[in-house]
Write a structure and sequence with these properties.
It is a single chain. The protein has 611 residues and is α/β, with parallel strands linked by helices. It has 16 helices and 33 strands. Helix 8 packs across helix 9, helix 11 crosses helix 16 and helix 12 packs across helix 16. The relative contact order is 0.12. InterPro entries: 5'-Nucleotdase_C, 5'-Nucleotdase_C_sf, 5'-Nucleotdase_CS, 5_nucleotidase/apyrase, Calcineurin-like_PHP, CpdB_N, Metallo-depent_PP-like, TAT_signal.
């Protein structure tokens, strides 16, 4: 694997990382500058007029498998209300523009994680035609990022969704290091991935400037991908590990330190108090760890052009930026530096965002990945069954709808079949589901694979946990914090009814299939679930139920009560999405009468239905 590319020099010496996990890259550390080079250049920058220069570090994050400006779930060009465009092919055009403006030797390109999960393109080369094996294809994200010329990327939490072997195979295909200073080998607590890399840029002075790039990933991996990493990797906190490694980068000769971290700025955590580490720690790190010049963050899928954070130790300003996900934006950190008294100093940093919808796709990237793209388009357009009527998710945040009940029915059937004949076969089976994708539709008539996949857009797997009736009610009370409190008779505004007071995303709003209940939004959080019943009778708080639940929720994602500590009675390694596809194929026909109307939920105010 070549780490020496383009028209700048990487001055790094390799040391072993992740010895206990086969196939790992090596950690890159810088060698001291040659004394002769230093002496030769002392004469410049010693006088009253320092040598001044500039360079740009570009950054992406949360690409999530997007190479093209294409939506595989709808089999059409991607578009949203803001008319954003997505994909690495667009990013490539923006990157080339910046390189032409600044000079190729005056730019670097990095990523802050979550590259190999998120589209059917990336899924196909993880599960259908995986990149593991002796004759494995090149992952389309690796092919595109190599061709664009990335210099480093941080690990994201979704890099671990398909297991460590596939991640290692992806890592081996990259022409640049995959960094993770806080992804540690569980046995010896040493980095299992390269912690950092130092790149050299020649800015017209005799002595190149050395830019250290530290990579950090999200501690939540220990919860969200517990099945893949437990006993193998640990993930300590981002500020804590940065405090250890930033001085090492400086000691290794870095004149500039840029952190690429898969963490949000300072958003609330989705796991509550289950870990002692912050999920979104970008601002905390910038404020508390001295020696950082700029921070590229991600994970939160938000747009931050520039946020200035004053370091409490040094008083210096650290510039933080997050480009919007999926390749919709490209961050540019513009550095002003000067060489004086034998050393480089950062005199100014600003950041800006470039928008992908202002450029065309790079034909070089399109040609490179086109054959894989067409193969996946054919795959997702397979017909798997029919549906008697069109099912839309549009109102599922406010009403019990057949399309969400379809997810619940499929999950409940899978768990009931798995438990048949065993000691838990007599327990009633319930199922949680959330409105993941606001545009999902199961059409009337032919149903294609992409229709089912578009309804369940995450690679979650299915588990079965035992909860009591009281715990089910607690679970629903927690979920109902999704809604704002609205007094009886007050007007209903759908734009402010959800998400506002508690910052709860749609994927953390669960309904439960198999029971009936009302959610009284006139009441405060914690006192909203009324008339909870099972098969027409009030739920006994002491009764036992089996809850079919996805692994993200079962491992603590969203911090829902009870479920993470509940007894597990079954688990499946296949994605729920595939379970849904298999269910539709086996049934042949989706008929809402088979699963909708027997039980359900509704929003009320003082007993009066809202809708």
């Amino acid at each position: 694997m070549s780490l020496n590319r383009r028209d700048f020099v990487t001055r790094s010496a390799a040391t072993a990382a992740g010895a206990a996990l086969a196939g790992g890259l090596t950690a890159a550390t810088a060698t001291p500058a040659a004394a002769a080079d230093q002496n030769q250049d002392e004469s410049r920058g010693r006088g009253p007029v320092p040598f001044k220069a500039s360079f740009t570090v570009m950054g992406t994050t949360d690409l999530h498998g997007h190479v093209f400006n294409w939506e595989y779930f709808t089999d059409s060009e991607y578009d949203d209300k803001a008319h954003n465009d997505v994909g690495l092919a667009k990013i490539s055009t923006l990157v080339e523009q910046v390189r032409q403006e600044k000079g190729r030797g005056r730019t670097l390109l990095i990523d802050a994680g979550d590259t190999i999960q998120g589209t059917q393109l990336s899924y196909y080369y993880a599960r259908v035609e995986p990149i593991t094996g002796t004759k494995a294809p090149r992952h389309p994200m690796a092919a595109a990022m190599n061709a664009i010329g990335y210099d480093a990327a941080a690990l994201g939490n979704h890099e671990f969704n398909y297991g460590i072997p596939l991640l290692r195979a992806y890592q081996e295909q990259l022409d640049f290091p995959l960094l993770g200073a806080n992804a540690l080998n569980a046995k010896n607590e040493k980095p299992a991935f390269p912690p950092y890399v130092i790149r050299e840029l020649h800015l017209g002075h005799g002595r190149p400037i050395r830019v250290g790039i530290l990579g950090l990933t999200n501690p939540g991996i220990a919860i969200w991908d517990k099945a893949n990493v437990q006993g193998r990797l640990t993930f300590p906190g981002i500020p804590e590990v940065a405090a250890k490694w930033v001085p090492k980068l400086r000691a290794a000769g870095a004149d500039v330190v840029v952190v690429s971290a898969h963490t949000g700025a300072d958003d609330p955590s989705s796991w509550g108090d289950q870990l002692p580490y912050a999920e979104n720690a970008g601002v905390t790190m910038a404020a508390t760890v001295p020696g950082i010049d700029a921070v590229l963050i991600g994970h939160a899928h938000k747009e931050i052009a520039q946020r200035d954070v004053v370091n409490t130790v040094t008083g210096k300003t650290v510039v933080l930026s997050e480009p919007l996900c999926w390749g919709e934006r490209l961050t540019c950190f513009d550095f002003e530096v000067e060489f004086a008294r034998g050393q480089w100093t950062v005199t100014g940093v600003t950041s800006r965002l470039l928008n992908s919808n202002t450029v065309a796709e790079d034909p070089k990237i399109v040609k490179l990945v086109d054959a894989q793209h067409k193969k996946v388009v054919a795959y997702v357009n397979q017909v798997i069954g029919t549906c008697k009527e069109s099912l839309s998710i549009a109102e599922s945040r406010f009403k019990d709808t057949p399309i969400i009940d379809l997810i619940g029915r499929i999950q409940a059937d899978a768990v009931r079949d798995a438990l048949a004949g065993g000691q838990y076969a007599s327990l009633p089976v319930l199922a949680q589901a959330a409105p993941f994708n606001r545009t999902a539709v199961i059409p009337a008539g032919e149903v294609k694979l992409r229709d089912a996949a578009g309804l369940y857009i995450y690679e979650n797997t299915l588990e079965a946990r035992i909860l009591t009736g009281a715990q089910i009610k607690d679970y629903l009370e927690y979920s109902a914090k999704y809604y704002a409190q609205v007094a009886p008779g007050a007007p209903i505004n759908l734009d402010t009814l959800t998400n506002q007071a508690n910052n709860t995303p749609d994927y953390n709003y669960d309904s439960i299939y198999g029971v009936s209940y009302d959610i009284d939004i006139a009441q405060p959080v914690g006192s909203r679930i009324v008339n909870l019943s099972y098969q027409g009778k009030p739920v006994d708080p002491a009764a036992q139920f089996v809850l079919a639940v996805n692994n993200y929720r079962a491992n603590g994602g969203g911090n829902f009560p009870h479920v993470a500590k509940a007894q597990q009675v079954w688990a499946n390694s296949d994605e729920i999405r595939n379970t849904m596809i298999a269910w539709v194929k086996a049934k042949g026909v989706i008929d809402p009468a088979d699963f909708y109307g027997q039980a359900g939920w509704r929003l009320v105010r003082a007993g009066v239905p809202v809708f």
